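URGENT: need a sanity check before tomorrow's submission.

F., can you look over the Zn(2)-C6 fungal-type domain-containing protein record below? I want to be sure the sequence and structure line up before it goes out.
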Amino acid sequence: MQRVRTGCRNCRRRHKKCDELRPVCTSCSKKGETCQWPLKGDVIRINTGDSVKKSNGSPENAKTPSTVHSEVAGSVGSEVASTSPVHGEYNYDDYDVLHNVFRDYMFLNAFTTNPLEPFYLEAEALEVTHSLDNFVTEPPPPDLPQDEKIRLLNRYISEVAPWLDMFDHRNQFTSRLPLMVKERALLYSILTIASRQQEKFDTSAKERTFRLYEQCLTHLLPKVKQVPSMDIVSSCVILCCFEMMASNSPSPAWRKHLEGCAELFKTAEVNGFSGELKSAVFWCFARMDISFAIAGRMRTVIPCERWLPAGSSVYDARSLFHKNVTWNEACDNFANYSVFLMSRVLNLIFAPSLEPKEFESEWLRLFNELSLWWDERPGEMRPVEFQNPSNEVPFPKILYCVSPAISGNQLFHTSAILLMSNRPRVDVSDSGILTRPLIWHAKQIVGISLTNDHHGCLINSLQPLYVAGTLLSHPSEHKIIVDLLYAIEKRTGWSMSWRAHDLKRYWGLLDR
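Structure tokens as predicted:
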């Protein structure tokens, strides 16, 4: 079916001719509907063509799509305005279209380029009008002025990359920038997320962000049938980070972006121990994965086994994180180990069904591993200075010297709270760190964020602060946590206030 290329959104959706009367066309006027006009320009249409094959020639031998993948296939024909210059307002329906196209790109790329993952999609779900092979748009607009591009790249380096590089002493999301910008899709993903971060301080940047996102997809989509390079995988992870930066809840769109990245990781053979850029990209993704899992009260998108090299058991992971490395690498490894242990805690407590004995066995393993993590931390992962709470400030001051120590310890305390809150009836030593009161762990979490100013770590504290806040009862403590979340959002541009709102609801403050 040929899509209508002119007219308002409603007429295009119905494939009806629109008389294009502005501001309200005749059809919408008769139906009493809001008449919305798309952004000017051609449209991008996606078709997998012959690239998605039946495995061994028949659907019976192919992998059947899951519910999520079926939903993805059904929206493969999504449209997105091209990058031709536009004057005027965009609306967030247009953003939804871009999100859907990006999500579909990741799934389709994974399913069409990984011979080990044959995937069968119903032809009806893939009915579209043009294939990517024949994808043509109007000429893109001129690049950003050089001074504006420099400002955005500088913002990326100072405000965005610290979170991406938080557990990577090589700072690969920053140090590789001169090489990164040669790949246009990656360059535009960097500019897009930098522009989004600036939006919190300058609302006039919103339309520019949208245009940059369009540009990024324009460079990304033609590569849908190519095995993804690490530049492309990095671009997709940055765009997932873009989604997280602006999210006000664990939305389905955020989840599907994570699932799309997870499929790309399969194709590109990316895990936490792939080395250098692959490892850096993976652990950046892993932090998003556990953040979503905590907020959504669910398991991580990537199962714990796939965080490790092929053939490795989660029960052998400790030796992988303890391998003989430099002190910088040791800090990175211990911080990443805390992320891994958090994922195991989440996957245990949110497992759909486990026999009591199985739950107890895994719980005890995690209790012991977390206890060892705390005891075996290298010196750089321990506080530089510590000050107990006072009558004026109910939280301790805990200063760390490196970002892996800041967030690694904060994640440890979060894991401790979640694990001990779900303690089965088993005997454990009462003298260890994990058996301290849950409120003690909660106050450590808040104290770490109050003391350490590293922007990446403040961003990463969103879910730990929420978990801590659910355990604290005094109004003065509530005020400090809420003010802290608002201050982090104001300082970093990352969405934090939604968790402050969730805490107010949890405390019953919204009912008063």
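My own read: The chain has two domains: 43-267, 332-511. The mean pLDDT is 81. If you see anything odd, call me.
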